[in-house]
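Data availability (excerpt). The following record was deposited with the supplementary files.
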Amino acid sequence: MSLYDCATLNDALRGTIFHDHLHYFPVIDSTSAAALEAANAGSPAGGVYFADEQTAGRGRGGHAWHSAAGAGMYASMLLRPALDPATALKISLATGLAAQTAILQVCGLHADIRWPNDLMLDGKKCGGILVDTAAAGDAERLRHVVIGVGINVNHDAFPDELRHLATSLRIETGRTQSMQALLTALLRALAEEIAALEAGGEVLERFTAASTWVKGKRVHVEDAGGYTGVTNGLDVHGFLRILTESGAERLVLSGGVREIIEG
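Predicted structure:
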């Protein structure tokens, strides 16, 4: 039995770019792989590729994403926004804000966002975002963007190796959550966020206010051989500034930022 009523979902998306562009799969290797294939084949913007189960879901850095059957929300969206390639990171940050909004609306939980793309509850990861972009031939605008979102929704437990790192909306609320309601809220919020970016809207200040990871958090950064410091805000493109223990400021260009817990 499907986790989604696609007709009802489509009706709820009227007025957004995603209306009439739903592609549902009971089982798929990767929703992002399907969306990227469609993007390269010239499919129009607005496609939503979602599934009850992924057999080869992926996260940042090529890591596997634990995609339990029927327990998580696995969706990838194909967009062709009127944006230049320098905005790629802002798209990821805006998606984090959209996911945060959806989780609050549906579950009443305030998710934190670990820069740049992890959704956190009670210090554990409950979701992730992966954005793939391709520039047009003139390299001055984006040809397509594929936004993959995975959220742990109704998992009641995790494998031993993930138990201290991951949580789910069900675990945090103590009740089963509606996948349909969550995907609807996510897509509506994402449509608004992307439209705001295209209109020149500001996202960095809102992300800074929405994430405890942007300022004042002592962290270890995996890049460049590894170093520690305190987060010190975002630069104009959305990259994370780190004030190192030597007093120098460094810029993190990708993920791999982890909190240092004292004691």
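Summary of structural features: The two ends are 47 Å apart (CA to CA).
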